[in-house]
What does this fold into?
Amino acid sequence: MSMNRCPKCDDIYDTDFQMEEVDGEMVCDRCWEKHEEDQDNRKLAEEVGDMEHILIQDNDSHWYVIPANKTNDWDAWTESKNYKEGVVPNYAKEVGGCPSLVIFKDYRIL
Ligand SMILES: [Zn+2]
It folds into this structure.
């Protein structure tokens, strides 16, 4: 069994685990999934621009409205110290526990 260090997250992995290439480096499963998710978010951001908004939840099931092109920032925020301290990003509007409080003039479903 040989071990390998993931260059992105610094975790040590058994190389029997699948390693995937991201930006020319072999990274662990978790970093690969994160990379794929970031790419999906970027595609979404390009498609929607900053004039449309989405409903999104934090890790504690509270709802927010954010610009649809901010999902990468949002993911980073939910992992940040600011999140733990309750500092909400200025682009986000807190809704609370009930998404039906949000009223739309128009909508589309991606
Ligand atoms: Zn990793």
